[in-house]
Hints:
Layout: H1 18-31, H2 36-49, H3 78-82, H4 86-94, E1 98-102, H5 110-113, E2 114-120, E3 123-130, E4 133-138, E5 143-147, E6 167-175, E7 180-189, E8 192-193, H6 199-213, E9 226-229, E10 233-234, H7 237-245, E11 252-259, E12 267-275, E13 298-303, E14 308-310, E15 318-321, H8 324-330, E16 337-350, E17 353-364, H9 375-386, H10 391-414
Parallel strand pairs: 1-12, 7-9
Antiparallel strand pairs: 2-10, 2-11, 3-4, 3-6, 4-5, 6-7, 7-8, 11-12, 13-14, 13-16, 14-15, 16-17
Amino acid sequence: MAPHDLRRPFKRPAISDQERRRQQSLLRQAQNRRDAQHHARFLASTAFSLPSSQPDQEPILDSQPDPSPSPSPKDLDVVGASKLKGAEARKWFAKQLMLPEWMIDIPDKLNQDWFVFARPSGKRCFVVSCNGTTISRLRNGSILHRFPSALPNGARRKDSSAPAQSYSILDCIFHEVDQTYYVIDMICWKGYSLCDCTSEFRFFWLNSKLGETGACDPPSHYHKYRFSLVPVYCCDRDGLSAAYTAAVPYVKDGLLFYNKHAHYQTGITPLALVWKDENCSQYVMDTDNKGQVPNQQQVVLELQEDGKLTTCDDTPVVFGCLDGSFIQQSGLHSGCLLRFAIGVGGLFLVDGKLEKADLNYLGQANRARSSADSFSKVMFQYSVRHSPLRVDDLLGSVSSAVDQESKASDIEMDG
């Protein structure tokens, strides 16, 4: 690992187009308001009807591509989604969560427009309560737990006052050490979708409603697992410091930043960001299958029909291209997830866009993988090895913003 001898000022030149994508994402959510109620109902139904797909039961990939095209997840109804198996089921469910980009540039107005909290270490999952039971599903589509809970309509109780068809959906991280579901977002509550609500409202609603149910109480006969809220702060200097240093009852795995105006968008979004360093996460750099940090950074990319190697972003970033004869000799086909090491040539970017990457082929990725790496993850891991974004940069950014606002106010008063 290269020594961290390259210090950056808090206001450094952007190394990516992450800010531009943030602005586009905010504009897109304002222009394209989807039917959030229908999506929430669809997700709740599918969580119960989709069979559990275990990664170790997946058949070995055939060297020949499947001639029948797979339906787009947007085109699937509940019946169609319930027929998905293996990699397709995992890929479908992975796209239903709102997944953060990795912070590779400090957002503008970080102190004004963003929340921050310490992310619990554990298994990211949906928790759906419906029809007198509760089910949690992992990002790969497999069932984590099926259990009674104090969530609305989450257990069969005679004194239940919830409507029979009522359902709720929570975005959680299951922390195995204390067997607790830490709730980081609320997607739907008693049949009312919150997908098209801002994160500011969703966090308010979550804090107002979850405690009323008794879901945060210790486990009982009708409530097998405990639910808990995470402390969310406004991302000023005090809030950022608290999220970074304050004691919490769970193991931290980095910091999560949510834009206050962001809706709950499925898939990867630049309006939610994750950041890590050695003081707030055990796993800053990716490890190999032996749990060791490899000498060279490794990336997982998806092979396309034309041989291009791309990330999993909505607009995939092309990292390179494989020769047709190599693809044929290796028995690869479109959709394969392949692992590469970044060589000494590294990554070459121009105006935040990747121009060239030095890639060395290592083989196919673990079959449990549901998707390739995102561009922001690759860039974050690359930055960690060469010039990491430090907590001092973040604190300097929010402090500078306050100073600038104070100076602007002083000028207005002088005038």
